From TrEMBL, chain A:
Residues 581-623 are annotated as: Disordered. This is AP complex subunit beta. It is a peripheral membrane protein. GO terms for molecular function: clathrin binding. Its main location: membrane. It comes from Cyprinus carpio. The keyword Iron does not apply. Belongs to the adaptor complexes large subunit family. Residues 834-928 form the Beta-adaptin appendage C-terminal subdomain domain. Keywords: Acetylation, Membrane, Protein transport, Transport.
Automatic annotation (TrEMBL), chain B:
The gene is ap2m1a. Residues 225-244 are annotated as: Disordered. Residues 170-440 form the MHD domain. GO terms for biological process: endocytosis; intracellular protein transport; Wnt signaling pathway. It comes from Cyprinus carpio (Common carp). This is AP-2 complex subunit mu-A isoform X1. Signal peptide: none annotated.
Length: 928, 441
């Protein structure tokens, strides 16, 4: 009997025919009809119209037919909730059936019918099934609790199903235990603090016992659950490890990986001088290697995980380089991952073999793979100093092949090698220069130009080479333009006599003919430097560069720790925390490794130095920063790509200020400030607590401006977190802005959440709309030790470089410490910029109001402010919004106000306040 | 957990669609088709994230199986499940093809309902499944209560892979040691990497619930027993793998029937086997591998339009043994216009569609040598890129285990029934096959 015929019915009137067949008296015909319905459903046809007819077939003792009807029900019940009720009786009856298979089928299906009304009827049968004598029914019921929880979490709690589920962890049947663990783990994920699993040594013992007996899938559930347990001490940790290690020999790769996860995590707690620690390390390598003989998809998952494991504990696989050699027939995704791991494992001992392999790969077909192989050769040179020379010669061989993309990739990595080993390999420059014409990718062109500029004194025709690039200056990408500008300036500083014309040319191209603000700014800086103080220019532009290091491509330690806790899962495949790709509350918890062992015996354990955080941090320069780094040899500007371009015309800029500026002041700001309000309602007087976020910008000023009639200063928002520790190698920064006594201040709290001391703090702002810049250095006098917080107030000036930001009040900040440079952006309240002498003379106000064109005018409503005009006026004055005049017209108070911004822009406003009406109307006018 | 499971044909038409979670909608079916099946370029990853939904896929001939989720699931588990799903389907209706899937779609839905509940994989051992899901409709309605509870206890039980009450008139078992030997050799004959991945496949036709114990010449066990003798003795001195006392196993994994904790503590392999055919263990060795063949390539470029290739193969095992199904594949450049081949033994052909010369030899005894030479004419091209010279690959089958593994015993104990270890008829067979056996040229 073949069923494929059901897929072929496509004629019209089909639904009608099916209806007739479904209502047929003959059992066989009915069954045939339901099969047809299911086939249609599969291919995506809407057969929901047949709902009542299909449900009618449910009352049958034919199990196959019943299963088909259930399948249909699960698909369509949601669209026909009222009809679905019809099915309830059958379910309840089936849950009492003598046959355990039927009882289980009923409870399994009921959970999949996501109709609120039905869930209530489900509770009683489910309660019975959870205590069923047959394990098959119990294991199905356990999963059903998770299903029900997904539909109605409250109901599950109210009915006490969670407790019953917990009891099932002690069930005599291992599969019941496994399913209960799976269900509880999932439910616990959506209640991060519920302590639902309540793991303690007794339950752990039960789980470990069940682990030996249940199915391969059950073992995975249990191991994944074990991984979330935190053992009390190293002895418990060791005894769990001992009982988990046998799983490493399981045929199922997922069991192996989950066991590896548990071991990697619990190992943290074992003292490193323990014999068992060494034994465990040795036991981990073989199963990881075995994973590489699995099917390619699993190999891929394994390789992504090994990539993490190798970063966390390089010692495990350091002798296993060969197994990561790429096979000719490996799928491309396996090849690329293997390559990554090869670089991570490269060391002085195996570098010869690795290089021979990489050279082989560089001749393969897949372009991505070849590029990565070439790049890998460069990374080897940077990682293993002894091999640098061989790497360079290998790269030169590759350049000789003249394969376009190989040459370009080689030049990009050679640039990095130059930066790592200055004054060593410059003899190859001549060879590189021969390939100048074939470079068509911006990255390669930029790299080549950098090389020519950096070594201009050794290249006889450097000026000609650079000049040749200059011809098509405007067609180049920004990256190349910036590099060309810097290179020519370097050349000029080295050979001033012959290249004056060239430098003039490039400076004018950059400053006058370009629309790109970065390029213009850099051009101006060079120009001024060169014209005012050539000696200083030399010092700045030709200063010694910090060395490049291999650490750039490592995963940041806190993220790595989190990912280790997610071994085997999607997070470890994507190398992203679950919160980055999972919606909703699930996966938002950040998992952490248990605290390191050994703090008791000797704080100066020799391994601590090797294991990362406390290691003397190498000077890391993000590759993207290289270009900007050249400019000042210190990379404190955010990546260029994020900087929006600016309108060249000043007039336009001014217009934007009104639109955007006032918007931000009155409207947009409500987003930021309103959020602050919501977060700290307790800070507001109760009577004013009703001011909604819509009132935003001005609302805040009204509420918190201090006592009535006593302007004490402007509103200061509570501190918010600007930089997460996770993103900044352990440095957390929160802060806010304030204007105190005419001085703008940035209040910062720096917290060290890493394990090593932080020193050498510095701060810098990117150009911004109002030229905010630090007025002094960031005063962090004492080193910041782990878990310490320091509050700093940084005075700001408004004399910095100006560039319009989006949103207008956006501020991009770079903070440096001894570990790295970090970037974040924050938004300041516009009221920060209102100066104290913003009170306009009445006559001037009148004249100016009339003179401002209508285009510069905007109107807003501020809602729900329960203040009278005088109180409002007083409060606003606290924030330097001055009332010039007041008028009462037809029961409405009209306030005329002026504000002056730090950059000399005046904003005039007319505020209409109707007594008793909490809504204010503001007419804003702006003049430059 | 798994939110949904879809099966597509090569055109991207859905054959099976089963949704387990509410967060997976019908649009997920289309998203995968559009972004993966219909995507022009090669698939760059078996895991794809489309609009915060993750798709895992495997392909069997031209059928796509995709598992979908929105959560942070155990990725290894999902792939293992997909493979298992393929195994189960194959066990039920043979090859996974569009026709077979359409013919059995009701059965597949039934299986999916059983082996995946709310996205959690459940017992997926075919032995157990076949007791209550059959192709002739479902059993279970006309069974006695005992039969029913026997089914459920088996599905959920500790020994989920074997049912009680199996009876054979003749108790018999077959052991196949199947090895694939992998090699990557440099043109100069240096072994870049070599390993054997082996499997022990067992077919058991035993009555009752027999307790089995399997022993092999594992170095750790032999050394422990003190019978190992001189294990340093080079394995190559006696070819054919017959003489080696013990072998070092890098790692091994076992079917879930094997008691892993016992293996971990005592290194003994004990188990109650499933009925019929299954894979008892997999292992990997890297030391003292007997490489059955050596390939010696010689490629000479004569000008820009001609290549001369000479390949010698040498067999390296006992002269009394015969290798079979030998195939040497010599890649040729894409711009090949013609090939002349001369070989001493077997048949050689240039296959333009595969860009290779394929040389086949039916049988070859140990310690022999054979040679092929070819002249390859090339079309002149202005393609700057050099020919990548893929490695020369080889296929063969030999009647011994290249790792040197030997089965020492397989003891069967069944205390309740009256047959003993001696009554069981046992068969052991060794087959060595080429895995990826490549020599660069």
């Amino acid at each position: 009997m073949t069923d494929s015929k059901y897929f072929t019915t496509t004629k019209k009137g089909e639904i009608f025919e099916l209806k007739a067949e479904l209502n047929s008296d003959k059992k066989e015909k009915k069954k045939e009809a339901v099969k047809k319905v299911i086939a249609s459903m599969t291919v995506g046809k809407d057969v929901s119209a047949l709902f009542p007819d299909v449900v009618n077939c449910m009352q049958t003792d034919n199990l196959e037919l019943k299963k088909l009807v259930y399948l249909y029900l699960m698909n369509y019940a949601k669209s026909q909730p009222d009809m679905a009720i019809m099915a309830v009786n059958t379910f309840v009856k089936d849950c009492e059936d003598l046959n355990p298979l039927i009882r289980a089928l009923a409870v399994r299906t009921m959970g999949c019918i996501r109709v609120d009304k039905i869930t209530e009827y489900l509770c009683e049968p489910l309660r019975k099934c959870l205590k069923d004598e047959d394990p098959y029914v119990r294991k199905t019921a356990a999963v059903c609790v998770a299903k029900l929880h997904d539909i109605n979490a409250q109901l599950v709690e109210d009915q006490g199903f969670l407790d019953t589920l917990k009891d099932l962890i002690s069930d005599s049947n291992p599969m019941v235990v496994a399913n209960a663990v799976a269900a509880l783990s999932e439910i616990a994920e959506s209640h991060p603090n519920s302590n639902l699993l309540d793991l303690n040594p007794q339950t752990i013992n039960k789980l470990l016992t069940a682990l030996n007996e249940c199915t391969e899938w059950g073992q995975i559930f249990i191991l994944d659950c074990l991984a979330s347990y935190l053992p009390r001490d190293d002895r418990e940790s060791q005894s769990i490890c001992e009982r988990v290690t046998p799983r490493l020999s399981h045929a199922n790769s997922a069991v192996v990986l989950s066991a590896v996860k548990v071991l990697m995590k619990f190992m943290e707690m074992l003292p490193k001088d323990l014999d068992y620690y060494g034994t465990l390390l040795k036991k981990l390598a073989p199963p990881l290697v075995t994973l590489l003989s699995a099917e390619p998809e699993l190999q891929y998952v394994a390789l992504r995980n090994i990539n993490l494991i190798v970063q966390k504990r390089p010692e495990i696989l350091k002798h296993e380089m060969k197994v990561f050699f790429v096979k000719y027939n490996d799928p491309i995704y396996v090849k690329l991952e293997k390559l990554d791991i090869m670089i991570r494992l490269a060391s002085q001992a195996n570098i010869a073999q690795v290089l021979a392999e990489l050279k082989e790969y560089a001749t393969e077909v897949d372009v991505d793979f070849v590029r990565k192989a070439v790049r890998a050769i460069g990374r080897c040179a940077i990682k293993v100093e002894q091999s640098a020379e061989r790497c360079v010669s290998t790269l030169l061989d590759l350049i000789q092949t003249k394969v376009n993309y190989v040459v370009q990739e080689a030049i990009v990595v050679i640039k990095d090698i130059f930066r790592k080993y200055p004054n060593k390999y410059e003899s190859v420059i001549a060879t590189l220069c021969e390939n100048l014409d074939s470079l068509d990718e911006p990255e390669a062109r930029a790299a080549m130009i950098w090389i020519v500029g950096e070594y201009a004194e050794r290249i006889d025709n450097a000026d000609e080479l650079l000049e040749s690039f200059l011809e098509g200056f405007h067609d180049e990408s920004t990256q190349v333009q910036l590099q060309l500008l810097t290179a020519i300036v370097k050349l000029f500083l080295k050979k001033p006599t012959e290249t004056q014309e060239l430098v003039q040319q490039v400076l004018s191209l950059a400053t006058q003919d370009s629309d790109n603000p970065d390029l213009r700014d850099r051009g101006y800086i060079y120009w001024r430097l060169l014209s005012t103080d050539p000696v200083a220019a030399k010092e700045v532009v030709l200063a010694e560069k910090p060395l490049i290091s291999e650490e750039t491509d490592l995963i940041e330690p806190t993220l790595l720790e989190e990912l280790i806790c997610h071994i085997g899962t999607l997070a470890s495949v994507y190398h992203k925390p679950p919160s980055a790709f999972v919606e909703g509350s699930r996966g938002v918890q950040h998992k952490r490794l248990p605290p390191r062992a050994g703090s008791g015996e000797s704080t100066e354990s020799p391994d601590v130095g090797q294991s990362g955080p406390s290691e003397a941090p190498p000077a890391v320069i993000p590759s993207q920063g290289d270009l900007l780094g050249d400019l000042l040899n210190l990379d404190l500007a955010p990546p260029t790509a994020t900087v929006p371009s600016v309108q060249p015309s000043m007039q336009m800029g001014a217009m934007d200020l009104l639109g955007g500026g006032l918007d931000s002041l009155m409207g947009d700001e409500s987003d930021t400030m309103g959020a602050g309000l919501g977060a700290a309602p307790a800070a507001m007087p109760a009577s004013l607590g009703s001011a909604p976020a819509v009132g935003g910008g001005l609302g805040d000023l009204f509420d918190l401006g201090g006592g009535v009639g006593m302007p004490t200063g402007s509103y200061v928002a509570p501190k918010t977190v600007w930089l997460l520790a996770m993103k900044a190698k352990g440095l957390e920064i929160s802060g806010t802005f304030a204007r105190r006594g005419g001085i703008i201040q940035m209040d910062l709290s720096l917290t060290n959440k890493a394990m090593s001391v932080m020193t050498d703090f510095a701060i810098q702002f990117n150009r911004n709309s109002f030229g905010l810049a630090p007025a002094g250095p960031l005063q962090v006098l004492t080193p910041l030790s782990p878990n310490q917080t320091i509050d700093v107030s940084l005075p700001l000036s408004t004399s910095g470089p100006v560039m319009k930001m989006e949103p207008l009040n956006n501020l991009q900040v770079a903070v440096k410490n001894n570990i790295d440079v970090f970037y974040f952006s924050c938004q300041y309240p516009l009221s920060l910029l209102f100066v104290e002498d913003g009170k306009m003379d009445r006559q001037v106000f009148l004249a100016t109001w009339k003179d401002i064109p209508n285009d510069n005018e905007a109107q807003f409503q501020i809602k729900d402010i329960h203040l009278n005009s005088d109180v409002a006026s007083n409060k606003l004055q606290g924030s330097n919004i001055f009332t010039i005049a007041k008028r009462t017209v037809e029961g409405q108070d009209m306030l005329y106000q002026s504000v002056k911004l730090t950059n000399g822009i005046w904003v005039l406003a007319e505020m209409r306040i109707q007594t008793g009406n909490p809504n204010y109307t503001v007419n804003g006018n702006k003049e430059t | 957990m798994i939110g949904g499971l879809f099966i597509y044909n090569h055109k991207g038409e859905v054959l099976i669609s089963r949704v387990y979670r509410d967060d997976i909608g019908r649009n997920a079916v289309d998203a995968f088709r559009v972004n993966v099946i219909h995507a022009r370029q090669q698939v760059r990853s078996p895991v794809t994230n489309i609009a915060r939904t993750s798709f895992f896929h495997v392909k069997r001939s031209n059928i796509w199986l995709a598992a979908v989720t929105k959560q942070n699931v155990n990725a290894a588990m999902v792939f293992e499940f997909l493979y298992k799903m393929c195994d189960v389907m194959t066990a039920y209706f043979g090859k996974i093809s569009e026709e077979n899937i359409k013919n059995n779609f009701v059965l597949i839905y039934e299986l999916l309902d059983e082996i995946l509940d709310f996205g959690y994989p459940q017992n997926s051992e075919t032995g157990a499944l076949k007791t209550f899901i059959t192709q002739q409709g479902i059993k279970g309605q006309h069974q006695t209560k005992e039969e029913q509870s026997q089914i459920t206890s088996q599905v959920t039980g500790q020994i989920g892979w074997r049912r009680e009450g199996i009876k054979y008139r003749r108790n018999e078992l077959f052991l196949d040691v199947l090895e694939s030997v992998n090699l990557l050799m440099s043109p100069q004959g240096q072994v870049l990497s070599a390993h054997v991945s082996g499997r022990v496949v067992m077919k058991s036709y035993l009555s009752g619930m027999p307790e089995c114990k399997f022993g092999m010449n594992d170095k750790i066990v032999i050394d422990k027993q003190g019978k190992g003798g001189t294990t340093d003795e080079p394995g190559k001195s006696e070819l054919g793998g017959s003489g080696k006392q013990s072998i070092a196993i890098d790692d091994c994994t076992f079917h879930q029937c094997v008691r892993l904790s016992k293996f971990d503590s005592e290194r003994s392999i004990s188990f109650i086997p499933p009925d019929g055919e299954y894979e008892l263990m997999r292992y990997r060795t890297t030391k003292d591998i007997i490489l059955p063949f050596r390939v010696i390539p010689l490629v000479r470029e004569v000008g820009r339009t001609k290549l001369e290739v000479k390949v010698v193969i040498k067999s390296n095992f006992k002269p009394s043994l015969l290798a079979q199904k030998i195939e040497v594949r010599i890649p040729t450049p894409l711009n090949t216009s013609g090939v002349q081949v001369i070989c001493m033994k077997g048949k050689a052909k240039y296959k333009a569609s595969e860009n290779a010369i394929v040389w086949k030899i039916k049988r070859m005894a140990g310690m022999k040598e054979s040679q092929i030479s070819a002249e390859i004419e090339l079309l002149p091209t202005n393609d700057k890129k050099k020919w990548a010279r893929p490695p020369i690959s080889m296929k063969f089958q030999v009647p011994f285990a290249p790792s040197g593994l030997k089965v020492r015993y397989l003891k069967v104990f069944e205390s309740k029934l009256n047959y003993s270890d001696h009554d069981v008829i046992k068969w052991v067979r060794y087959i060595g096959r080429s895995g990826i056996y490549e020599t660069r040229c």
